[in-house]
Design brief:
Blueprint: H1 2-21, E1 25-30, E2 35-38, H2 40-46, H3 50-53, H4 58-61, H5 67-80, E3 84-86, E4 112-120, E5 126-135, H6 137-146
Antiparallel strand pairs: 1-2, 1-5, 3-4, 4-5
């Protein structure tokens, strides 16, 4: 049993390393929108470290978020236990991050696609959600350049 727990801890560390290195924003929050996981993508683009956001309300951290819209989306994920999505064409961003291509890019902000995933506890109840934020600025700029 102790050997299994040690292996599980090693695997947990690998998974945490992977989450930190993804070029995708990973944010886990509870039913009350309190942040529990905040990866390095989120740190780099928000300017806020994990220690600054952990346990705080996402709406307190980012009051510009459309609260009614996000509460509705997350509520559906929590009730149904299925993923939800938002594309940049529907809503250009969840969090207004600056683009990191100030010379070559034309956008004033980072266009984002969003996936909201339910995270079930051991008892199978969904108590947390994971928001994955994808930077799709290049694709959005290309599509907007082609628009009439």
């Amino acid at each position: 049993m102790a050997g299994e727990a040690q292996i599980d801890m090693r695997e947990l560390h690998w998974l945490l390393d992977i989450v930190q290195c993804l070029d995708v924003g990973v944010l886990v929050m509870d039913r009350n929108f309190r942040v529990e996981v905040w990866n390095s993508f989120m740190e780099n683009h928000s300017g806020l470290g994990a220690d600054q956001v952990q346990g705080r309300s996402l709406f307190q951290l980012f009051p510009e978020i459309d609260r009614v819209w996000l509460e509705r989306k997350v509520g559906t994920v929590l009730r149904l236990g299925t993923r939800a999505f938002s594309l940049w064409q529907q809503r250009p961003y969840l969090l207004r991050f600056e683009t990191y291509r100030p010379i070559t890019g034309q956008a004033d902000f980072m266009y984002q696609n969003l996936t909201i995933m339910p995270l079930a506890a051991a008892g199978r109840e969904v108590e947390h959600v994971c928001l994955m934020i994808y930077d799709v600025t290049e694709a959005a700029e290309a599509q907007l350049r082609q628009a009439p």
